[in-house]
Specification:
The complex is a heterodimer. By secondary structure, chain A is mainly alpha-helical. Chain A contains 27 helices and 6 strands. Chain A folds into 3 domains: 147 residues, no CATH class; 203 residues, no CATH class; 109 residues, no CATH class. Chain A has a 5-stranded antiparallel beta sheet, with helices on one face. Chain A is elongated and about 130 Å long. Chain B has 3 domains: 143 residues, no CATH class; 241 residues, Hypothetical protein af1432 (Orthogonal Bundle), CATH 1.10.3210; 76 residues, no CATH class. Chain B contains 18 helices and 13 strands. In chain B, helix 14 crosses helix 15. Chain B is globular, with a radius of gyration of 24 Å. The chains are: A mainly alpha, B alpha+beta. The interface between A and B is large, with 107 and 122 residues. The complex binds fe (ii) ion (2 copies). The site of one fe (ii) ion has 6 residues of chain B, from helix 9 and helix 15.
């Protein structure tokens, strides 16, 4: 947007009503106004540039008002005037963006800023202009309705109706008040005869007139108490919080609908009201609404009205949209431990929503400072999970350690059924705590799961590796045996001696005779493949341990050989292994 | 869980302004010795005494701000209505303010009332301030000084809109535009998903501004009866009448707007009722009646489709639902609705019935004159109607509402063009209806029926019967409007 002409260049006309100084100041002020609107259009409302623009404008106004009185600007099709002075002309390049064009579009004739103008009024003014910058086809209002609604104390406008210019004004003389076909008879009735003769409409004389002397004036006289009562009524009306009544009437309307289309359109409106009720913290009312809608759901179980069920279910699905959840989330973040009532109400509301909401609820667990809110959310998630686990599963995809950990109380209480998937997911979680919990639950459920978890043998977390070894050690399994053999062969160069020993120990506990030849080679062979780790003391010790734990005749023979080996390193390995087994209290010789 | 309204009481100065304004209103309606007037005066005295400091007490308006003793009254939710009303009151009389001297404390009740009445009648004068000054001199009232508004050229300001013809033009435009916007909404609401309310809101907002200035011209225009376009005319009339009631109980402009909109759409549900039922000459059978009685609930349903601000929509949804429920909830729709009617619902019920029973309908053989309609409605106080609001309605119209056709003892027919709102005076202003050569009624001289014979004290013309103008084929709006 471009301001077409710098105000300085506009000539001060001879017959201007404005003193030169005032004109100069007005021009300056209008320039600031136009510039402020320009930045306001370019940046979001809360952007520093927009805020700065409004601050500048406000201070420009206070400077102006320190020497001048109220400012009235006339809005013409292409220009802005003060008295007869043109202060601004709409650029022909981008007329639609010009503030003057917008005001003119809605029929505004003049705009007045009055002394006492506050910054928040300017902000509202710009917000309203911005809201109606482009008018939708079926718009709820325009700049004029917005400004009247906004009730800005120091900004006045005068607007003319621009919509009905072509509608001819009503002409009363052409409108017949009564039945057309009897018009003639009406004309010919003599007033004196009407009591006897009947006109097109007989005068109803059976009812007493209010002017009848038999009706005492006192009957309609307003007493002082009634005046006060009236005043109270007005105050109540103007302060009436009608959300509850609106919900009630919506339920009555829904309850009486037999038409699917109408039902659905009322539900659409209800959804908007729900959003508003959340904004207003009216959770109790919401809960009532949801409960009543649920009752509607089961009121008519016949197939004929199956659409009621589908539409209401759709409503609850829509309720769980991210838009509504964002509102709820924002509210949850503001709650403290002391807001017991609200927390409880929200808990019940959440239970009505779709499990997809879990995705929005999860993050609050780590953001909220209130432990009561956290506890409530966990309960809600636990309940929602019963209907669908997928959202919770998705939540575990988040790389945030803390998030996963905060979900642990829910996760560990998940009942059997289709929940294994989620525990496997947990074993991949960035948080060790979460992985460990996943492993724990899975191995309790089925020790064979350890095969699927084998890769965790390399988990960076020592305790987890330990859990995996323990899991492997729980059963004889050729699958595990092969996995371990392969693993040991591929990891000869590992430096972590404890880990190496643990592998052999696990092999000893889950393996079979099939592992013996390999173990024999490791324990007894000399000199070859040194660089890969063969011949190292630690491997020999591990092999000796494994053989001892295998507890077969062949293994015992090998161990015997080792104990008598001419190589010191072999004997040493044997001794170490035996000492460790003795210390752990296991009897290798059965 | 609903937030309870938070009220605060008036401040000292607000209280003074309030007692002043209430007293003005009360004296307008009641005789001098009415207990309400006496109570009003003592309230006024008390609040006056508590504000009086120094030699005088000045109330002044400047740029629509109110000042008492040079202190600006803050304009907020509580004071807003009061300040708006008072500002309008002063503006209509071209007053800048009033300055009460210490001697005001000694003024008699009679003098205070004389002052109030003088002030009240000043708005009809060419030069209200000069009129006031002369009047005060004549009555020897020297404890109050009238401050004239400084001249300021403001061609557009509505407050200077004084000419009756101009107000009539406003009313005519508003009526036309409201009808047009209503028809547009009614057409779209059945076909479109959502219907914008921009135009309706604009015209109603305009009308609020005008109606606050002068509601009588609107009561006059609401006498329009259009036989073959009943639902539309009826809707506009009910909107106007409701807003007039609203003005009389001091609703804020914002509330008046909401009230106007929901009154306009109170019968929106009728667009779904087939014409053959709406215009059936005979009695409706059960199925037809059921369909007709669904209209109030359907009005509310259709209103949910209107695209307007949430606040506005929430305010306009309930009253149309309630408009046939009746004050004691004995009406329809027959649901288990147990809540008392909202204020707007109670107002619309009154305006609705009044317009309906004073409109010629094909299924009714008889029609009530407006004064009988009021008598009939008073019988329904406490059952069909809010007992206080019905009183407001009657007081607003006077006993011979505008649009009543009178038969005078002279044999003449006269149409009430302005009902008397003078205290204790029933007789209205009317215009004689004369027949032209085609047998059509034309408007003759305007007569004040309150005029009495100077010697006998009897009325010059007496009312011996009342009619609904349609019994004589007379379109009241046509004559009232040109006679207004
Ligand atoms: Fe109705
Ligand atoms: Fe109606």
């Amino acid at each position: 947007m471009q301001i077409s002409k710098p105000a300085e260049h506009i000539k001060h006309s001879q017959d201007s009503l404005l003193p030169a100084q005032e004109l100069q100041d007005t021009k300056q002020l209008v320039n600031v106004l136009l510039l402020a609107w320009k930045s306001y259009c370019l940046y979001p409302e809360r952007h520093a540039a927009s805020i700065k623009a409004l601050e500048n404008l406000e201070s420009a106004f206070s400077v102006f008002f320190s020497t001048h009185s109220d400012l009235r600007l006339s809005v013409k099709k292409d220009s802005l005037l003060c008295e007869s002075e043109t202060l601004h002309e709409v650029s022909s390049d981008t007329p639609s963006e010009d503030i003057v064009s917008l005001l003119y579009r809605d029929g505004i004739q003049w705009l007045e800023f009055r002394q006492g103008l506050r910054q928040e009024e300017l902000t509202s003014f710009f917000n309203i202009l911005n809201k109606y910058r482009e008018l939708e086809e079926e718009t709820e209002g325009d700049i004029v309705t917005g400004l009247i609604d906004g009730n800005l104390e120091h900004i006045n406008i005068k607007a003319v109706d621009t919509f009905w210019q072509d509608v001819p004004l009503i002409d009363f003389s052409n409108i017949n008040p009564s039945l057309p076909e009897t018009e003639d008879s009406a004309k010919h009735i003599e007033p004196e005869k009407t009591e006897q003769q009947e006109g097109p409409r007989r005068n109803d004389i059976s009812t007493r007139s209010i002017a009848d002397p038999s009706i005492s004036e006192e009957l309609w006289e307003i007493s002082p108490a009634e005046y006060e009562e009236l005043q109270k009524m007005v105050l109540e009306e103007e302060n009436w919080d009608n959300t509850e009544d609106i919900f009630d009437v919506l339920l009555v309307i829904l309850g009486s609908q037999t038409d699917q289309y109408n039902f659905s359109s009322v539900l659409d409106f209800t959804l908007e009201e729900v959003a508003e009720a959340i904004e207003q913290d009216e959770y109790g009312l919401l809960l009532n609404l949801f409960q009543s809608l649920h009752q509607l759901l089961y009121r008519d179980a016949s197939d004929e009205h199956d659409w009621v069920r589908l539409l209401i279910e759709g409503f609850f699905q829509d309720l769980s949209s991210s838009k509504i959840f964002d509102l709820i989330t924002a509210k949850l973040m503001l709650l403290n431990d002391s807001d017991t009532e609200k927390i409880q109400a929200l808990r019940q509301i959440l239970l009505f929503l779709s499990p997809t909401g879990i995705l929005s609820l999860g993050p609050i667990l780590i953001q909220t400072r209130s432990s009561a809110v956290r506890k409530m959310i966990l309960e809600a998630i636990e309940y929602l999970c019963l209907r669908d686990l997928e959202p919770l599963e998705k939540l575990l995809d988040s790389p945030e350690k803390e998030l996963g950990e905060s979900l642990l109380p829910v996760l560990s209480r998940l009942k059997k059924g289709r929940t294994n998937k989620i525990f496997f997911k947990m074993t991949e979680h960035p948080s060790a705590k979460v992985r460990r919990e996943g492993i724990r639950v899975l191995l309790v459920r089925d020790p064979f799961f350890v095969q699927k978890l084998f890769s965790l043998i390399d988990d960076p977390h020592k305790e987890i590796r330990k859990d995996i070894f323990a899991g492997i050690a729980m059963q004889r399994s050729s699958v595990l045996e092969n996995m371990l053999l392969k693993y040991i062969k591929e990891n000869f160069d590992k430096k972590d001696t404890a880990h190496i020993l643990a592998c052999y120990e696990a092999l000893g506990r889950c393996g079979s005779a099939a592992a013996t030849p390999f173990l024999r080679r490791i324990l007894l062979d000399q000199g070859w493949n040194w660089f890969k780790g063969y011949g190292k003391l630690i491997h020999r010790e591990g092999a000796a341990t494994a053989l001892a734990l295998l507890d077969t005749r062949a293994a015992k023979n090998i161990l015997q050989t080792a104990s008598k080996s001419k190589f010191k390193v072999v004997r040493e390995a044997f001794d170490k292994a035996m000492a460790k087994i003795d210390a752990s209290g296991e009897d290798s010789n059965g | 869980m609903a937030n309870l309204p938070k009220y605060r009481s008036y401040t000292l100065y607000e209280n003074f302004l309030h007692s002043f304004y209430s007293l003005l209103q009360t004296t307008r309606i009641h005789k001098d010795d009415h207990k309400l007037v006496t109570a009003g005066i003592s309230k006024f005295y008390d609040s006056f005494a508590s504000c009086m400091q120094g030699e005088s007490l000045t109330i002044k308006i400047s740029n629509d701000h109110f000042f008492i003793q040079d202190k600006q009254l803050s304009y907020n939710r509580i004071s807003k209505n009061l300040i708006d009303n008072m500002a309008r009151y002063f503006n209509a009389r071209e007053l800048e303010g009033l300055k009460f001297s210490l001697a005001s404390r000694e003024a008699s009740n009679e003098a205070i009332l004389a002052f109030m009445r003088l002030l009240d009648s000043a708005d009809q004068r060419q030069n209200p301030v000069a009129f006031l000054q002369t009047g005060l001199n004549l009555k020897n009232i020297d404890w109050v000084e009238v401050l004239k508004k400084p001249e300021k050229p403001q061609e557009d300001k509505l407050s200077t809109l004084k000419g009756k013809s101009e107000r009539r033009e406003w009313a005519r435009k508003d009526y036309t535009y409201i009808s047009a916007s209503f028809k547009e909404v009614a057409q779209k609401v059945t076909s479109k998903g959502r219907v914008g309310m921009r135009k309706t809101v604009r015209v109603i907002q305009d009308m609020v501004t005008h109606l606050i200035e002068d509601d009588e011209v609107y009561s006059a225009i609401s006498t329009l009866r259009v036989f073959d376009d009943y639902t539309f005319t009826h809707s506009v009339n009910v909107a106007i009448l409701s807003m007039c009631i609203g003005k009389h109980i001091n609703l804020s402009p914002r509330s008046l707007e909401r009230l106007g909109i929901c009154a306009l759409f109170h019968d929106l549900g009728k667009i779904e009722v087939p014409d053959r039922i709406l215009n059936k000459p005979g009695k409706l059978d059960d199925a037809e009646l059921k369909l007709l009685e669904e209209h109030s609930l359907n009005s509310a349903r259709l209103i949910t489709k209107l695209r307007t601000s949430r606040d506005r929509k929430a305010k306009i949804l309930l009253p149309p639902f309630e408009h046939h429920l009746k004050y004691n909830l004995s009406g329809y729709p027959y649901t288990n609705w147990k809540k008392p009617l909202t204020l707007f619902g109670r107002i619309i019920s009154i305006a609705d019935v009044y317009d309906a029973i004073t409109s010629p309908r094909i299924y009714r053989k008889t029609i009530m004159s407006p004064d009988r309609a009021l008598g009939f409605m008073l019988d329904g106080a406490g059952k069909d109607f809010d007992p206080i609001l019905i009183k407001v309605f009657i007081n607003m119209f006077g006993v011979y509402p505008v649009g009543t056709l009178l038969k005078l003892n002279s044999g003449e027919l006269a149409l009430v063009i302005s009902s008397s709102r003078m205290k204790g005076e029933k007789a209205p202003l009317a215009c004689i209806m004369e027949k032209d050569i085609n047998g059509r009624y034309k408007q003759g001289a305007t007569v004040n029926l309150a005029e009495r014979d100077a010697e006998t004290g009897d009325y010059m013309r007496e009312i011996i019967e009342t009619y609904h103008p349609s019994t004589f084929g007379i379109q009241p709006a046509e004559h009232i409007f040109s006679g207004y």
